[in-house]
Amino acid sequence: MSKKQHQAVVTDTVDVDIAVVGAGLVGLPLALALNAQGWVVALIDAAAEPVGACESASASSFVSDTALNDFESQALKQRCTALNSGTQQWLVAQGLWQSVAGDACPIKKVNVSHKGYFGATRLSADELSIEALGYVVNNAAYVQQLNAVCANTTVKRFYNTRVNGVSHLSDAVQLSVEGAPNIRAKLLIAADGITSVVRDSTGIATSLVDYEQAAVLGMIKLDSPHEGVAHERFTPSGPLALLPRPGLFMNFVDCIDPHEQTDIEAMSDAAYLQRLQTRFGYRLGRFSQLGPRFVTPLLRIESNAQTATRTVLLGNAMRLLHPVGGQGYNLAIRDVDALVKRLSTELAKDPGDEELLTAFAAQRQRDQKSIVRLTDLLAKGFRGRASIPGHLRSGALLGLDAIAPLRKRFAAKTMGITDL
Ligand SMILES: Cc1cc2nc3c(=O)[nH]c(=O)nc-3n(C[C@H](O)[C@H](O)[C@H](O)COP(=O)(O)OP(=O)(O)OC[C@H]3O[C@@H](n4cnc5c(N)ncnc54)[C@H](O)[C@@H]3O)c2cc1C
Predict the structure, then answer these.
(1) What is the enclosing helix (H) or strand (E) of 349?
(2) In 9-89, at which residue ranges do the beta strands (DSSP E only) sit?
(3) Would you tell me which of 89, 123, 258, 291 could form a disulfide with 219, CB atoms 3.0–4.6 Å apart?
(4) Is the Cβ atom of 23 under 6 angstroms away from ligand 1?
(5) Nearest CA residue ID for atom 50, ligand 1
(6) C-alpha distance across the termini of the chain, in Å
(7) Ligand 1 pocket test: which of 147, 316, 413 has the largest number of ligand atoms within 8 Å of its C-beta?
(8) Mean pLDDT in residue range 360-367
(9) Whole-number average pLDDT of the chain
(10) pLDDT tens-digit series, residues 231-261
């Protein structure tokens, strides 16, 4: 192709019904669900297409010692997300579950405890007569698998394509992009993460809550099986969560006081692993190996509105939550579900219709507010001097454990299990 012809291609404009910016955990399944309804969808991401060797693999697919070591080192590098039962059911309904299920580790039980006090709340899939309370997936594998599905649909995918700006036409929005033709859409969906360019283009402001906590994220290997039990342990410096992964691996989110951050970053792996073991105790046996770890501040960043002219914000572009209780992605998928359903109604001739978008945002507010309240309570309520007194918290956990209906309501809220 001559340089002139090439220029002609990149200055062309692609017309679609809906443009989804960001092909991450939220953008990919959203684009697939909209495409399945018959909308013409463009999916745009600044990063390279997620293809190639999966970070995740099942232990049984490796036989040689070298391969086993590869598996261990890959397994120890994973970033994970717990999908609740509601999200899993949504993926089933979209015909996407079978594509991601191979890597998903079922959560059979959840054990919530409070360091230094008696009382633990146990939720169990058996008690609720369901197969699993949720599933833990490796983020990279999940995105790769959904992208592979997307590659076989009519979704127009643009990777290595950064959106730089948005302009408004009388009946559409136009994206200025780097590395591809401009894209014109009736509806623009921001799934472009915390630093959303799309959100900035709307002028929607954000508000920030600093939890004055940081989190150490990583993977460990155990000496003995975890039996599919997820643990959330409340400690004076914040919650410590351990999520089961295939084999002997567990993903952890270890909340710390920010003033400990420098010391923790300087610690040797052996010293940090020992610290983690001491904080958690020995109910899972000995922690034998630690993967790469990194530390991130814990903030809540919320957009002050979910919609603007022909634009909807979803996922991290809308709201970053504290990771306690694993609610952020699950809430985002409930937003996705509500939007996709609204767009499937007869009214949705113009997907960017203002009334439709306003009704969507109003419908979602109650659930969003209650999840923000719940994560705030879990993040702040079990820590520090300002928190609920220890014996009451312990009582709350014991009470919750003793009273089955309350526990079931807690499961319904956090696990997205609706038919209890
Ligand atoms: C430590 C931690 C643990 C968590 N655990 C859980 C959990 O167990 N359960 C749960 O429900 N939630 C959890 N969450 C929340 C979950 O991670 C988020 O809900 C999820 O990552 C949101 O995905 P997203 O697609 O909105 O954003 P991202 O995953 O950030 O994707 C944004 C995408 O947009 C692209 N992009 C950015 N800018 C541009 C641009 N200008 N042009 C084009 N593309 C662009 C990026 O390349 C990226 O692919 C956790 C969060 C944290 C921090």
Answers:
(1) none
(2) 13-21, 41-44, 80-84
(3) 291
(4) yes
(5) 323
(6) 61
(7) 316
(8) 97
(9) 86
(10) 988 887 778 999 999 999 999 999 999 899 9
Mean pLDDT confidence for 374-393: 63
Ligand 1, atom 52: nearest CA belongs to which residue? Answer: 323
Say yes or no: CB of residue 332 within 6 Å of ligand 1: yes
Q: Which two tokens stand for residue 382?
A: 């079990």
Does the Cβ of 253 fall within 6 Å of ligand 1?
Answer: yes
Q: Where are the domains of the chain?
A: 3-54+142-207+300-376
How is residue 47 annotated by DSSP?
A: S
Distance CA 340, CA 202 (A): 22
Q: What is the pLDDT of residues 200-234, one digit of tens each?
A: 999 999 999 999 999 999 999 999 999 999 998 88
**Measured CA angle at 368 (ends 81, 236), to 5 deg:** 60
Is residue 19 packed enough to be buried (19+ CB in 10 Å), middle (13-18) or exposed (0-12)? buried
Q: How far is CA 113 from CA 64, 118, 125, 244, in A?
A: 40, 8, 18, 17
Q: For 248-327, list the strands marked E by DSSP.
A: 249-256, 287-290, 294-303, 307-308, 311-313, 319-320
Domain 3-54+142-207+300-376 CATH (choose: 2.60.40.1120, 3.30.1490.20, 3.40.720.10, 3.50.50.60):
3.50.50.60
Give the Cα separation of 158 and 147 in Å (integer).
Answer: 12
Cα(37)–Cα(40) distance, integer angstroms: 9
